[in-house]
Design goal:
- The complex is a heterodimer of chains A (784) and B (674).
- Chain A has 784 residues and is of the alpha+beta class.
- Chain A contains 25 helices and 29 strands.
- A four-stranded antiparallel sheet of chain A has the order 4-5-6-7, with no helix packed on it.
- In chain A, a hairpin with a 5-residue loop joins strand 16 (614-619) and strand 17 (625-630).
- The longest helix of chain A has 20 residues, at 85-104.
- Chain A starts with 36 loop residues before the first helix and ends with a strand.
- Chain B has 674 residues and is mainly α.
- Chain B is built from 26 helices and six strands.
- Chain B has helices at 2-9, 16-25, 33-60, 68-77, 114-119, 154-162, 172-181, 192-207, 217-231, 235-247, 255-271, 275-290, 300-312, 325-343, 350-363, 369-381, 384-391, 395-407, 413-437, 444-451, 455-474, 480-484, 510-513, 566-574, 607-612, 659-662, and strands at 94-99, 102-107, 130-137, 517-520, 536-542, 551-557.
- Chain B has a three-stranded antiparallel sheet, with no helix packed on it.
- In chain B, helix 17 crosses helix 19 (413-437).
- The longest helix of chain B is centred in the N-terminal third of the chain and has 28 residues, at 33-60.
- Classes of the chains: A alpha+beta (784), B mainly alpha (674).
- Chains A and B meet through helix 12, strand 3, strand 5 and strand 27 of A and helix 1, helix 3, helix 4, strand 3 and helix 7 of B.
- Strand 3 of chain A pairs antiparallel with strand 3 of chain B, so a sheet runs across the interface.
């Protein structure tokens, strides 16, 4: 357990309890697909102690603790709310146990159940360098406590619990409450102040800030909102309902408009009883609101509060706010406005300091085959193309190792199969015919409209080679269309397959059952709206996630469901395959994102930290990182290797609904309900652009294949094209801005928009660039 | 401010009263006030919480409308059992009731007889989801196809027409970006080069202010096809082409071409007296007017003279005694009325200028009967007010002139026909107006005293008009339009041709040759179904004498219309008052010559006259009569009137006529009565 304090962030779940490195066991054929949950369970239960994969390197420096404790409490609260008593008990036991450990810096507590003892002992044995397969441990613990029936359900929260465990330990520098009850958190609002004076305090501060020098005013104004919220909550908690109401009435108009949604939640909260179980409230309580203020301004504030003996406000500042002080010029109003808006204030600067390997992995060298092999590959692809032997240019690009790229084997990736190679070759050939886009050469847009969807289309994805489109619908169906003349066929039944001559050249053709050929296949299995869908890169699998809390893996050979991944107990909002296949990520209402491998029925990693629903998830092109967008209005970047949160991007004023990495891996584009697209430099952790123009939620973002154009699709029925080259070319990434993160964003959205294309009445919910840079957009026609 | 208001709204609480009512409904009689208040607070809070969660589902479902399903899922999140059963997909009809000092909103739950549900035929299975591809953009430009919204919305066209400096043209911002970038484009490599080269060459061209005359190849082809079809000999094609003009959203850029085509076409064909072509061109104008995506104001300077020419030109056909050019005049008059209604403003004064033009030519003594007819028709179509102020006062004089021709000693046949038409036109238009403005006792003598020689005829017409109005009042829920708007939409359908002489000029489509009143025609229900339109015809024939109402409304589908057309069926079921007439007399081919009530305006010329085939009239001169020096009216030679608002002073004559009020149905020529 000595290793744990070094673990930096909230969640660490170690991969692969079965001791088989993922690449060695890539999903074989459809028949030999991932294990069924029952098998997996048995395997997981027994195989916990098997050999671990490569030890993780020690993480970066520990992150500051206070919020982590809060996170733990939030998780506890969450579990209780979900009626997961067992898990909660386990977690609480463990948390207390861990707390004791912190205090004593000692070995295992005797009270730990047997299953838990295993990882602990192992940790001791491994001398703190190996990370443990904590999921298994947790699952086993959960199973032991809850009985075998509840294993499936309890396993995941157990994982979450464990995930949240380490931070408590990390928080050894601050006193940890041994009573991790939510009422304890709430009781932080016990105050001595006179409720009648609250308004006076607040307006006094308001007066002070408004009279402050211009350069400080903008910075100090950031205080208004968190103070307002906490003062209101204090009033409510102490059951001064009338005072609370009048306080709210009087000052809510002063708050920035982007906090409107939270204010609405807050306004409905008028009784102490309501505070229990209100998520937004809990977020305020359990996480400190982060403000970034220059030292001068902070001194000014401090002096003022001390002069006025304004203990009430000072207490709040001390207890509920985290003031990130920096040296230098105070920021301007515009700079501040660009960065604030998230549920818990800005990201701390330290949060974005970790090094991120944003470069691309080296492409495997592929011998471009001779002509006849070529033909074969094309036949299989079903799109005969005139091939042009041209390879030198392709290879040269990928030969050099990107200095920012992660080591090739940083995370284990599946080995390329022959069919993958063929596909890569195809891809390269198509790439030679790719249209070079730019402001003068805009892409053509082909719009696939779903007709008669009756407002029921909830997710769309297109295969990389643009041969299939999948739609997820509110009626729980998943429908796959072929958009090429090649129809969708299933493989023959086992009996028929045995009759086939396996040596023949066209065996792949022969296994297909012609009778099943159709343009559309409907996949039944979910029991709620399908909110996300993703094709695997090799087009053999399809993932879908749904309101019913499951992620399902479908075979596109047999058009049947292979696995239902259970873990999220609440609606799953999004899922996506890794660009290299095998792994996939999902995120949902339970506020965590999970990393899975197709052949494991339990998640490999749980990324916890968001304060509200995880609404969208995307893999970095090098598959080493995952970006998640959330309803808490932040975007986080997670390291797949160790589960750390390596970037927190704040600045959106509404829930994030779309994410896109640039093809070179350096930038991230995010779109939210506020109708803005924000662009981020991943390496520096900076916001580098803001694209305004949409008037409604941005549901889809996509960079062109070479990254010159960013396309955005929105609920306002438009597709917009933006000049990505221009945004990124004149970045001011000098030392100062990099150090402080204070960007001056140019107001140039109008110059950057290259085109706006309005549909008749079709919200655009998916965008996809074909390999030749044709833009495919899609959405469901919804007559007004 | 708006957000503050919203936030205030969120303070709303359910009244404690509701709790009481609900408790009573559950059979709990005495709930203390305090409990009610507590319950109300709690319930309000929970409802808000659930609604906020439901909103989340709406957002994730990529919708803009909250559904009951969203609420169910939100309940499920809270571990609350959702509601089961049938769901209202859309609107939940809450009803309001008050009484006993209580105000209630409630949801009416009707008791449904299961057997009723079982016995009703199953509703049609909703169409399955399907995928349809179209080009939203081709290399940066959005093609003008029906799948895309019209390139320039009507509001923008209007803004351009009225405030040319402010308006920005579509694609201008893109061009602006191109301007800066043109020369120093990124280095193209390999394949991209060929693609880019023509674009780069094109760049300097684009620096010029965007020319409206650039048409893509497809557009040019379309234009060619459409114009050929519109004036060609195949009626089916023409119907299709007109359909396209009337509905296609992407015609904005071709509008100048069409406008010129029409104006030039009228100019040439008036000279050549080619009646058929003139009719076709007017139908094109009508189709353009009907297109909801086009704003024509910029092209009125070409269209108005063309239409005016077709109203008042002295001669429109080779044989004025036989050919039914009157129908064209009527049709064009209606067009001009529609133009006035749509585009007349206080700055351009279109209506008053047109009124002045008509009045001037009518007043002139030397005006030939054809022009006279046109002027009167044009004025009459402008509405009741115009008829009252401009036509009625001149009735005695005009009646005298007609009488002198009809009863006078020796006149040309042509004049006689003209006078006859003018008389019936006056009667037709004046009678309804008189019926409205004159008090009921209709006395032949007083009419004679007031309106001269036309008085007695007018009197009988007024009596009939009154009877009709009464009838109409009785059947007010019936297809009102059928009676108040007794106008044929396409008058040319009644234009009879001397079969041997001009066999190929007008081929009337089968669907409109029927001597029927097209009332429910208009556009077909689907824009992609051009011809034959799924029209329903209401045949109004002269009734047999035994019918008291003298009105038989026949409801029949067009012979080619598909019987399964949903529109047809629904209408039929919704309007049970419409009777199907079974007498042989009202078969579609029933004659309308004897139409006493003149529901169908265009009467056939006396059969005998066609046989006469009188020699062509003396006036073959292509130009308008010399007396027709009208401002704003193009002589057929084709000068255009000026449209600058400042050009002509606001005319003193021509009182502003409120069309919407007096003549609300004027423009709706053939709109469906639903």
């Amino acid at each position: 357990m000595a290793a744990l304090p070094e673990e930096p962030a909230e969640v660490v779940v170690k991969p692969d309890p079965e001791g088989v490195a993922p690449p060695q066991l890539p999903p074989a054929g459809p028949p030999a697909a991932p294990p069924t949950p029952a098998d997996g369970e048995a395997a997981a239960g027994s195989g916990g102690e098997a050999a671990l994969p490569k030890p993780a390197p020690p993480g970066p420096a520990a992150s500051p603790a206070p919020t982590d404790r809060q996170t733990l409490l939030a998780v506890l609260q969450f579990l209780r709310r979900s009626n997961l008593r067992e898990s909660e008990d386990i977690l609480r036991r463990e948390a207390r146990l861990l707390g004791e450990e912190v205090a004593a810096a000692a070995a295992l507590s005797p009270s730990a159940p047997g299953a838990q003892g295993t990882p602990g002992g192992e940790a001791d044995a491994s001398g703190g360098e190996a990370l443990l397969s904590r999921v298994v441990a947790a699952a086993a613990a959960g199973g032991a406590a809850a009985g075998s029936a509840a294993v499936g359900a309890a396993a995941a929260p157990g994982g979450a619990a464990v995930a949240a465990g380490p931070p408590v330990k990390v928080g050894s520098c601050v006193p940890v409450e041994d009573q991790p009850d939510v009422s304890a958190v709430l009781s932080a609002y016990k105050q001595q102040g006179d409720p009648a004076l609250y308004e006076e305090y607040y307006s006094g501060l308001k007066h002070f800030i408004e009279c402050a020098l211009d350069c400080h005013r903008a910075e100090l104004s950031q205080l208004f909102y968190p103070l307002f919220v906490h003062m209101y909550l204090e009033l409510v908690y102490n059951q001064h309902e009338n005072e609370a109401k009048s306080f709210f009435e009087k000052f809510h108009g002063d708050q920035e408009c982007y906090y409107q949604d939270d204010l609405r939640v807050l306004s409905s909260l008028t009784k102490k009883e309501h505070m229990k179980g209100n998520e937004t409230m809990l977020d305020f309580r359990t996480s400190k609101f982060v403000l970034r203020i220059s030292r001068d301004s902070y001194q000014l504030l401090k002096r003022h509060l001390q002069e006025k003996q304004n203990n009430q406000i000072w207490n709040i500042v001390q207890e509920h706010l985290y003031i990130d002080i920096f040296d230098g010029m105070p920021r301007s109003k515009q700079q501040i406005d660009a960065m604030v808006g998230s549920l818990a204030g800005e990201a701390k600067r330290e949060a974005n300091k970790a090094k991120v390997f944003f470069g691309l992995l080296k492409e495997p060298e592929i011998e471009v085959p001779l002509d006849d092999e070529d033909e074969e590959g094309e036949n299989e692809e079903g799109k005969p193309k005139k091939k042009k032997p041209k390879r030198e240019s392709m290879g040269s690009k990928s030969k050099k190792q990107d200095p920012n790229a992660p080591p090739q084997n940083r995370i284990p990736l599946p080995e390329l199969k022959d069919s993958d190679k063929l596909d890569k070759i195809m891809n390269m050939k198509e790439a030679t015919k790719r249209v070079r886009l730019g402001p003068e050469c805009l892409p053509s847009i082909c719009f696939y409209t779903f007709l008669n969807a009756y407002q029921g289309l909830t997710a769309v994805d297109v295969t990389d080679d643009s041969s299939m489109i999948v739609g997820g619908f509110a009626d729980s169906t998943v429908r796959v269309w072929s958009v090429t003349p090649k129809k969708l066929r299933s493989v023959k039944s086992a009996a028929d397959l045995s009759l086939i001559d396996k040596e023949s050249d066209d065996v792949l053709e022969r296994i297909m059952d012609e009778k099943t050929a159709s343009e559309l296949k409907i996949l039944y299995g979910h029991s709620g709206p399908v909110y996300g869908a993703s094709f695997s890169p090799d087009r053999n699998y399809l993932l879908s996630c749904s309101e019913d809390g499951t992620v399902r893996l479908w075979s596109l050979q047999t058009f049947t469901c292979l696995v239902g991944y259970k873990g999220h107990n609440y609606p799953v909002w999004d899922t996506q395959f890794s660009p290299y296949g095998y792994y996939f990520v999902s995120g949902g209402h339970d506020r965590v994102a999970r990393l899975w491998a197709t052949d494991h029925y339990q998640p490999l990693r749980i990324f916890a930290g968001h304060l509200a629903d995880v609404t969208c998830t995307r893999f970095h092109p090098n598959s080493n990182y995952i970006a998640t967008g959330s309803a808490d209005r932040t975007v986080r970047l997670w390291d797949v290797l160790n589960g750390n949160c390596v970037r927190i991007f704040t600045g959106h004023k509404g829930p994030i609904h779309s994410l896109a990495f640039s093809p070179n891996g350096r930038f991230l584009a995010t779109g939210a309900t506020d109708g803005r697209v924000l662009l981020w430099d991943i390496g520096h952790g900076l916001m580098v652009g803001e694209l305004k123009g949409h008037t409604d939620t941005i549901c889809a973002l996509r960079f062109s294949r070479d990254g010159e154009i960013l396309a955005s699709g929105s609920m306002d029925n438009t597709v917009r094209l933006w000049d990505a080259v221009k945004v990124f070319e004149d970045l001011e990434t000098d030392d100062f801005t990099t150090a402080t993160g204070h960007m001056n964003l140019p107001e140039n959205s109008q110059d950057l928009v290259l085109g706006t294309y309005v549909t008749k009445s079709t919200p655009v919910i998916h965008l996809h660039f074909t390999r030749r840079n044709l833009l495919i957009a899609s959405g469901a026609y919804s007559p007004q | 401010m708006a957000e503050e208001k919203k936030l205030k709204l969120s303070h709303t609480l359910l009244p404690a009263e509701s709790m009481k009512v609900m408790a009573e409904a559950m059979g709990i009689a005495q709930v203390p006030e305090e409990t009610c208040q507590l319950l109300a607070d709690e319930v309000s809070y929970r409802i808000k919480e659930i609604t906020q969660d439901a909103l989340k589902f709406m957002h994730m479902g990529k919708r803009r409308k909250l559904t009951t399903g969203d609420v169910d899922y939100a309940l499920k999140l809270k571990n609350v059992e959702p509601l089961y059963g049938f769901h209202a997909q859309e609107f939940i009809p809450f009803r309001y009731a008050s009484g006993g000092g209580r105000e209630l909103y409630f949801y009416e739950e009707k008791e449904v007889d299961l057997s009723d549900i079982i016995n009703t035929p199953l509703p049609r299975v909703p169409l399955d989801v399907c995928l349809k591809a179209h080009w939203l953009s081709i290399e940066g430009t959005q093609p003008a196809i029906p799948e895309n919204p019209p390139p320039a919305p009507k509001e923008q066209q209007k803004a351009e027409a009225t405030e040319p400096l402010k308006a920005t043209k579509p694609g201008q911002e893109e061009n602006g970006a191109l301007k800066g970038k043109g020369p120093n484009a990124a280095t193209p490599d390999g394949k991209g080069k060929e693609k880019k080269a023509p674009l780069l060459e094109g760049a300097p061209l684009k620096l010029k202010p965007r020319s409206i005359h650039e048409l893509s190849v497809e557009q040019q082809l379309y234009y060619k096809e459409i114009t050929e079809a519109c004036v060609g000999s195949c009626e089916a094609k023409r119907a299709e082409a007109l359909q396209s003009i009337a509905t296609d959203p992407g015609l904005y850029q071709m509008l100048p071409r069409f406008s010129t085509f029409i104006s030039e076409g009228v100019r040439v064909n008036v000279v050549q007296n080619n009646l058929a072509l003139l009719i076709y061109l007017m139908r094109m104008v009508k189709a353009l007017m009907d297109n909801p995506t086009l704003y024509l104001e910029k092209y009125l300077h070409e269209l108005i003279p063309a239409v005016m020419t077709c109203i008042v030109s002295r001669q429109l056909c080779l044989r004025p005694d036989v050919d039914n050019h009157w129908a064209l005049r009527d049709f064009a008059a209606r067009l001009i009325a529609q133009i006035c209604k749509n585009f007349s403003t206080t700055t351009n004064n279109i209506q008053s200028r047109i009124t002045k033009t008509f009045t001037k030519s009518w007043v002139d003594e030397k005006t030939p009967w054809t022009t006279r007819y046109g002027s009167i028709a044009g004025l009459a179509e402008l509405g009741h007010d115009v008829i009252k102020t401009l036509i009625l006062p001149r009735l005695p004089a005009e009646g005298e002139r007609v009488r002198s021709i009809m009863e006078g000693p020796v006149v040309s046949n042509i004049d006689k026909i003209g006078a006859d038409h003018v008389q019936s036109l006056l009667l037709k238009h004046c009678a309804p107006v008189l019926a409205k403005i004159r008090p009921p006792p209709d006395n032949q003598d007083s009419y004679k005293a007031d309106y001269g020689s036309l008085g007695s005829l007018l009197c009988t017409h007024v009596v009939k008009a009154r009877a009709q109005a009464a009838l109409q009042a009785q059947q007010v829920n019936r297809t009102t339009l059928t009676i108040t708007q007794p106008r044929p939409t396409l008058t040319l359908s009644q234009a009879p041709q001397g079969p041997p002489r001009t066999p190929n000029i007008i081929k009337v489509p089968s669907s409109i040759t029927l001597p029927m009143q097209t009332l429910v025609s208009g556009r077909p229900s689907t824009p992609t179904q051009p011809s034959p339109p799924p029209t329903k015809y209401i045949v109004m024939s002269s009734a047999s004498s035994n019918s008291a109402s003298q009105q038989v409304i026949t409801f029949s589908t067009s012979p080619v219309g598909t019987a399964t057309s949903p529109v047809t069926t629904t209408v039929a079921s919704l309007q049970p008052v419409v009777k199907l007439v079974s007498t042989a007399q009202t078969a579609p081919s029933a004659t309308v010559t004897g139409n006493v009530q003149k529901y169908i305006v265009v009467s056939l010329p006396p059969p005998g006259e066609g046989g006469k085939g009188g020699g062509p009239p003396a006036q073959l001169s292509p130009s308008a009569p010399p007396g027709l020096a009208l401002p704003g009216l193009a002589p057929p030679a084709g000068a255009t009137i000026k449209q600058e608002p400042g050009d002509s002073p606001p005319p003193p004559a021509g009182p502003p006529t409120p069309f919407g009020k007096a003549n609300g149905a004027q423009g709706g020529m053939a709109e469906s009565p639903q």
